[in-house]
Specification:
Blueprint (H helix, E strand, L loop, with lengths): L2 E7 L2 H8 L9 E2 L6 E9 L2 H11 L7 E3 L1 E7 L7 E6 L3 H14 L16 E5 L5 H10 L8 E3 L1 E10 L2 E11 L4
Antiparallel strand pairs: 1-3, 1-9, 2-7, 4-8, 5-6, 6-7, 9-10
Length: about 180
């Protein structure tokens, strides 16, 4: 069964910007441009029937397009030994509004439970499970002023994720356009 999540892809210029930052952290497993995305909602493993119901529910998504930019760096968890390094966002308000509308669509699918986790918008740059905390802190300090150009968010994507021996591989299952402003 595929693992599904809903997200936003990044334009090539932003992917390139992030990929140029994929160095300087010993033992990090870098995500790379083919995997950079912003997750709006993790769903998990579903069967074919639920997959179709999710696609049908998201067809009703009615939300305006908006501009988004990345700014600053952080790590998860915020305290203790980090497991990932991520890029933050310039303005989260339009993204939070979009997330609420996505959740409203998904509430129409009985077999998709609400996400119990707090939504913290970010783009994962690296997995840092084997990195030293001091190295992660130096990396975050060196890239603390990172900022990308603003880019239009004009669609939401339903992704599937499959595990490979090189990590996860993502595939776009469906796209849902946002309303032009």
């Amino acid at each position: 069964m595929p693992r599904l999540f809903i997200g936003i892809d990044l334009p090539p210029g932003v992917d390139d910007h992030l990929e140029m930052m994929c160095y300087g952290l010993p033992e990090a497993r870098w995500e790379g441009a083919d995997k950079f995305h912003l997750t709006l909602r993790f769903i998990g493993e579903v069967d074919g029937r639920v997959h179709r119901e999710i696609v049908d529910a998201l067809q009703e998504l009615d939300s305006p397009s908006f501009l988004l930019g990345l700014k600053g760096m952080g790590m998860f968890p915020p305290r203790g030994l980090p497991t990932s390094v991520w890029a933050g966002l310039v303005d989260t308000a339009p993204l939070l509004a979009l997330r609420q509308k996505v959740d409203a669509c998904l509430r129409k699918v009985p077999d998709v439970p609400p996400d119990p986790r707090k939504f913290i918008p970010h783009v994962t740059i690296a997995r840092t499970g084997d990195c030293e905390l001091d190295d992660v802190m130096v990396y975050l300090t060196e890239h603390s002023l990172m900022r990308t150009e603003l880019f239009p968010v004009e669609r939401v994507l339903l992704f599937s994720s499959t595990k490979t021996h090189h990590g996860s591989a993502y595939r776009i299952e469906a796209a849902f356009p946002l309303r032009p402003v």
